[in-house]
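Appendix B. One record, verbatim.
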Amino acid sequence: MLNKDTTLCISLAGRPSNIGTRFHNYLYEELGLNFVYKAFTTGDIEGAIGGVRALGIRGCSVSMPFKEAVIPLVDELTGSAQAIESVNTIVNAAGRLTAYNTDYEAVSALIGRHALDPGAPVLVRGSGGMAKAVVAAFRDAGFGDVIVLARNATAGPALADKYGYRWLQADPPPAEAIIVNVTPLGMNGADADALAFSPGQIEAARAVFDVVAFPAETPLIRAARAAGKPVITGAEVIALQAARQFELYTGVSITADQVERASAFSRESAGS
């Protein structure tokens, strides 16, 4: 039951969803923590972050279009936020706001967990904010040969140049590479049936990584499994980044089983 001692955590997004709300509140209830999580949007990001500080709101998840706008409003950027100049998590400790990027942390952890070979070439499709987290994570894991594949002739080369890689606007021939989708292709909605890479590229790939979280089994992941390729799913990314947020906010470590159950519960409302 809510009371005067309940700790509040929030999210700020241009288009709020129930995903984070369900993930965090599920675990608060299971673990008996006197916390509550609520999603918000705002037309005044400066005022909203001022409210986080002034009202003692413990944690704040930050989504588009606010990930860069909050940077001058916090007191400290950790290495994960500095690496991509983007914030998705703010922790308030007695009025001091520290910013993180748990998307970057999650991708970095998965590169290590799946033992991806830094000597392998990498082909990343996409040039948005999450693509920046992915490309930076591969760079910091020691990958030297990364291609940013993007139609956008401004964002694509800018992302590649920022991290010292190459940009291509058109698909290259199939190659023995780690292929990564960081576009909406395969996501629930208008692009649900789209395949982010050609069958030839999938067949040649060393490993297939799809950052799309909903559904977890995208057309790309299904095709990669059918071809016998190692896969990393967007469900893994979103679960890890949310678990990291949870631990930053509460100071409580959670098990892989708890993360999976909370993540499954949150996915039940992915369309709302």
